[in-house]
């Protein structure tokens, strides 16, 4: 049914975005558990990270592994940094902001370099 509105590649990218959100949530719970010493945080961390890897594996059906992993890790890094600033009150120095910007620029170039069979057929 979704094929009327979404291509398999678009669905794969949506799944990859969900995997990134799960990675950010799981890693945030890791930080919370490490700081508070509570075991429940580690349970949530494990569940969220397991779901993240599962969703990543589903996205690999249509996105190359190098691109999917780079985007998963890179956007996860940027998202987790934003959460750490917002939730944990951590501060960023200019070098960190520059590094995050360069990482995002690199992700753009890596993603632009990917080709797909359906594009080649067009």
Automatic annotation (TrEMBL):
It is a multi-pass membrane protein. The keyword Cytoplasm does not apply. InterPro entries: EmrE-like (IPR037185), Small_drug/metabolite_transptr (IPR000390), Small_multidrug_res (IPR045324). Forms a complex with MdtI. Pfam families: Multi_Drug_Res. The chain crosses the membrane at residues 12-33, 39-60, 67-89, 95-113. This is Spermidine export protein MdtJ. Belongs to the drug/metabolite transporter (DMT) superfamily. Small multidrug resistance (SMR) (TC 2.A.7.1) family. It comes from the Bacteria. Its main location: membrane. Coiled coil: none annotated. Keywords: Cell inner membrane, Cell membrane, Membrane, Transmembrane, Transmembrane helix. It is found in: Cell inner membrane; Cell membrane. PANTHER family: SMR FAMILY PROTON-DEPENDENT DRUG EFFLUX TRANSPORTER SUGE (PTHR30561), SPERMIDINE EXPORT PROTEIN MDTJ (PTHR30561:SF2).
